[in-house]
Each structure stands twice: as C-alpha cells, then as structure tokens.
Amino acid sequence: MTILDPTSEEQDTPPEAAASYREPFGALAAYIQRASTGDRAALARLKPEALQPHQLAALARALTAAGLAPEQWHADTWPRWALIAHGMALAGHDGKQKLGRQLATAGVSESRVTKLLTSRGDAFTQLVPRVLRLMASKSVAPNWRELGELILKESSSLRSSQAEAEEIRLQVAGPYFSTLARAESKS
User: The domain 15-186 belongs to what CATH superfamily?
Assistant: First the structure.
C-alpha cells in the first residue's frame, strides 16, 4: 500500500492510507537514524525551500523508505516533508512525550515557544530549525507525530487543515505551560 499525502488539495486519500498516515513519522525517523553518514549529512544540511539535487536524492530515499509516495506529490508538498526530514536529522525523534513538555524540558524560552506557536508561513518554517537546534543542544528529541502534523497542516491552503493546525498548537501549548507552572511551583 502506498501512503499518499493527505494535505494535497487535488487528490483524495484512500481510507486505508489515512488510517496509517501517522506511522511514517516513526518510519522516517528510524530510516534517518540508520541512514548512511552522507544521507544524514545531506538531510541535516538541506534547505527545504531550495532543495539541491544531492539533497533531493537523500530526501527521496528517506521518504520512500518511510512508506510515502513522493512521486505523486505536488510541488508544495516536498518542502513540508523536507523540513520534517531536516528536523529529524538535526534533532531525532521521541514519540513518548508531548512536544510541549519536551520544549519545556529543553529549556526553550516562553517567548520562543510563543513565536513558534503564533508564527505562520515563512516565519514559522524559519523558526522551526532554530528551535530544533536548541532542543538538540539539550539532548531533547521532539515528538514528530505532533510537530510533523503541525508542519504539514500549517502550510496547507485547506481551511480544515488550518483549523487542525490551530488545534495542534493548543495541544503543544497546554503541556508546555503546565510544565513551566509545575516547575515554578516547586521552586
């Protein structure tokens, strides 16, 4: 079964693909973790908005290994998944905790998290790698099931996807601010 990009406006996602759609985040992270040094380096260095041929090859191998079908994607879908693969190469993946809690654990400042959650478009895509580098410097891997979905939904022109992106933002904010509040109350 091929898994199609459900954020694409011009194609219908089969029900069986939609049901298994979330698993490619874990599969992509696992592939990147065991990929060759060259592929990992190409993914870590890529610029999602300006893919180079050698980076595109590494990205296509990773996406295909994760069970995605990039050959069926529209041009605007590639940068979304490129940002996800780039982020995974930078910071890894930990799906066991909520992203908001991970941001708090990594010591990402309230102002930076607020910017991440309120920015849109190019501002959002430029801020994501900065936050990921900060998390990686603290040895905290993000939950890509949440962050990946936010990246895919945030840049979509579909109204329903934008509403889902807002819901994801709230799901990130809740654990982040509650973790900060608990830490302050213990001090």
Answer: CRISPR-associated protein Cse2 (1.10.520.40)
